[in-house]
Specification:
mainly alpha; two-stranded antiparallel sheet
């Protein structure tokens, strides 16, 4: 007869399942708040969010899964994964700004969940810290709430890299299958950068471990075929439909961006160092501590494969950091794939100590206090154009001081066991404040949504809207919220019929002169963004001839 498990084993198993359930519920609650709560509290911001959202809308309207289109013309800068996911959201939930942001939110949720289960298997005891540190880092929160490609690339890359390490540590081919599949999704999210970064990190680890065979073992033919089967069909189809695709996508938007400043995103070489430091907040102090310890103990770690995780995470971070630092074109989202590697490393560092040390405790107190104070001040900075009202400043300083005292006091007495409580509380309070109280100021200052609403209130019937010297953010934002192409006067795109024009107040006089002989009427202003609205009436042909 087989021996039956004893009561102690059964109780241990039940306790472990209960702990796992509690941890998963905790992670689900944090993801729900961090990534989904108030997802439409303010409208789409920047130029990319409304542009990507509009491309997905047009592809859905055309029932076209191959060619991304904007204003009915091919837009071949990015692969289709974000557009496909946004089309699903629109189809199920209707077109809206929050539906446009759902693909990034769900990708971030998936990534955080996988980090939890990965650490539960390979670093038991660190899984909750690792998942929550990743979810609450500034970079992940910001891009998880944005309509764009960066979070989808990051989720595919991060989960793929963890799958590769799981294969490396456990020698199960199934993990290698996942690795190749996720790299294919990364290639569909933003192009060849995902497999390229993965290859660089794996080669460097193989060289560090003096195991060159690791490279050839990773190059597994069934995996390569899976990668091609998932990623290649779209690339072939879009090239067949758009012969200019190879030139525009590969040579202009990949090689061109990397090698030149053709899109005017030039930054100094060291740009991504402070961006990464900001992206891992509020865990920056712990991340730096993890980096330092890993470097110090580089040659002291055990020879087991599982023990090389910290090395792998550091190499992964360095590859992303150096690769994009070399690039001539730099945008903050490029560094996002390095953020989860940093937070996992920080969680691993925390798990090995009960006390954090007074230098770490004080630095963490300063950082948490500063972050909350900035969150409380940010709406006032936007509303008053970076002139801080005295009352808002004192409130922010007061709350910041309270957070500093509480953080230092609790961490000093209870050590690492209290880390989640004292660091996550200011994050929750700050984000809740921004989404519930600060959102109107953010919306008015940064989004075209209230501008489009103002125009709708002025027009008696749908009219054509154009812009003159307005920002790209205004142009693409109006295009999404009004679902129409927005002509630009400075490009000679002057509508033939009567129309409304949005003009920054600094260019109002120039516009009135440019519009002649057409008659212009000032309709009003949108003060938060310093925009003026003009109605342009086209004179009858005989009047125009007489004026000429």
């Amino acid at each position: 007869m087989m021996a039956q498990p004893g009561p102690a084993v059964t109780l241990h198993s039940m306790s472990r399942r209960r702990t796992t359930l509690i941890e998963l519920v905790t992670i689900a609650g944090f993801c729900a708040f961090l990534f989904y709560f108030g997802l439409a509290a303010f409208g789409l911001v920047g130029a990319d969010e409304p542009r990507y959202a509009q491309i997905a809308r047009e592809m859905l309207a055309r029932r076209d899964l191959v060619t991304p289109t904007l204003y009915g013309k091919p837009w071949l800068e990015k692969p289709p994964l974000y557009y496909w996911r946004a089309m699903e959201s629109y189809w199920a939930l209707g077109v809206s700004d929050w539906a446009a942001r759902l693909p990034s939110a769900t990708a971030a949720t998936f990534m955080v969940a996988v980090i939890y289960f990965f650490l539960r298997r390979f670093r038991p005891g660190t899984q909750l810290n690792g998942a929550l540190m990743t979810a609450t880092s500034a970079g992940v929160i910001g891009f998880a709430r944005g309509a764009g490609t960066d979070m989808l690339l990051t989720a595919a890359f991060v989960v793929g890299m963890l799958a590769w390490f799981a294969w490396y540590a456990a020698e199960r081919r199934l993990w290698l299958v996942f690795f190749y599949f996720l790299m294919a999704l990364g290639a569909l999210a933003k192009g060849p950068v995902a497999p390229l970064l993965a290859a660089l990190a794996i080669v460097i680890l193989a060289l560090v471990q003096r195991d060159v065979r690791l490279i050839t073992r990773t190059l597994w033919l069934p995996g390569i075929l899976l990668f091609l089967a998932v990623s290649l069909p779209w690339y072939v189809a879009v090239q067949l439909q758009n012969p200019q695709f190879l030139r525009e996508f590969i040579f202009q938007h990949n090689l061109g961006r990397f090698a030149s400043n053709m899109y005017h995103h030039k930054q100094p070489f060291w740009y991504f160092v402070p961006v990464l430091v900001l992206g891992v907040m509020p865990w920056t102090v712990l991340v730096i501590a993890g980096w330092i310890e890993t470097i110090k103990q580089w040659h002291e770690q055990p020879a087991t494969r599982e023990a090389t995780l910290s090395k792998f995470l550091l190499i992964w971070t360095a590859v992303v950091l150096v690769f994009f630092s070399i690039s001539a074109s730099k945008l903050p989202g490029y560094i996002l794939p390095a953020v989860p590697a940093c937070t996992i490393l920080a969680a691993d560092w925390v798990s090995r100590r009960e006390r954090l040390g007074w230098a770490v405790v004080i630095a963490q107190g300063v950082l948490s206090a500063a972050l909350l104070a900035l969150a409380l001040l940010y709406p006032s900075l936007l509303e008053y154009r970076y002139k801080i009202p005295g009352e808002a400043l004192w409130w922010a300083l007061g709350f910041g001081a309270a957070v500093f005292v509480a953080t230092v006091s609790v961490l000093g007495r209870k050590g690492a066991a209290a880390l989640r409580l004292v660091v996550l509380t200011p994050v929750i309070v700050g984000l809740a404040f921004l989404l519930r109280i600060g959102a109107p100021a953010i919306d008015n200052a940064l989004s075209a949504r209230p501008v489009a609403r103002e125009i709708t209130q002025m027009e008696g019937h749908p009219v054509e809207v154009a812009v003159f010297n307005a920002s790209r953010e205004t142009e693409y934002g109006l295009a999404f919220y009004r679902n129409q192409a927005i002509p630009r006067y400075e490009r000679g795109e002057v509508p033939a019929q009567d129309h409304l024009v949005v003009v920054p107040e600094a260019y109002a006089d120039d516009f009135v002169k440019l519009a002649r002989p057409r008659r212009t009427s000032h309709l009003g202003s949108f003060t938060p963004q310093r925009l003026e609205f003009y109605w342009v009436s086209t004179p009858p042909p005989m009047v125009m001839e007489h004026q000429h």
